[in-house]
Amino acid sequence: MHITQLNRECLLHLFSFLDKNSRKNLAKTCHKLLEVFQDPLLWSLLIFHSPVELKKDNFLLGPALKHLSICWYSERVKVCNIEDWMKNSFQKDFCKRHENTVSDFLLDVCNRCPNLLSLTLSGCGHVTDDCILQLLKNCPNLKSLKLENCVQITDHTLEAVTLHGASLRTLHVDFCRNVTQAGLQRVREKCPSVMLRADRSANMIPDSKPGKKLMLEKASRKLVQL
């Protein structure tokens, strides 16, 4: 029996075991398999590990998407979480080339994936409060929001959670240095049912603190003297 003789349910099951690239390559072999690749039911989970993956035409966004994870751990991408004044010209150029990659992608998610249940973002240094606000508004069933090392996330995201996160049950803002204890306390007060975690966040020095650059320079000089 040829693979194309299998019914739609069997083909969807087979496709489910393949990664995004393998699914795309198999879909190129015939029209029937392309139709399976384009079936929204196949795309309930998406995981990305690099900016390049978000730009590939090897996945489908649709109402079936329930779980989304974008986690960048490479040394080059970590540059995006360094404060601008500390970056050299090469690092700034690298960041500029993909500074809207995740935000533009999440905007598509807002428009096409209203049934999203969980979102995990790690190392996404260019994601802003506005981006998370739009997602909370457009994905009312979101139950889990995990943000790690997303340096542009502030108390505005925490406020958006209290206003638009009615379905939210889990919120992580780990290593997000621009959230504050006051913002976290408001979430605890207004959303007592949310399991909140903020590992190494509110005790870190926020980017917006006046004189931070000078303070860090003085600390560095003291360390050198020691």
From TrEMBL:
The gene is Fbxl22. InterPro entries: F-box-like_dom_sf, Leu-rich_rpt_Cys-con_subtyp, LRR_dom_sf. CDD domains: F-box_FBXL22. This is FXL22 protein. The lineage of its organism: Eukaryota, Metazoa, Chordata, Craniata, Vertebrata. GO terms for cellular component: SCF ubiquitin ligase complex. SUPFAM superfamilies: F-box domain, RNI-like. GO terms for biological process: SCF-dependent proteasomal ubiquitin-dependent protein catabolic process. Keywords: Ubl conjugation pathway. The keyword Signal does not apply.
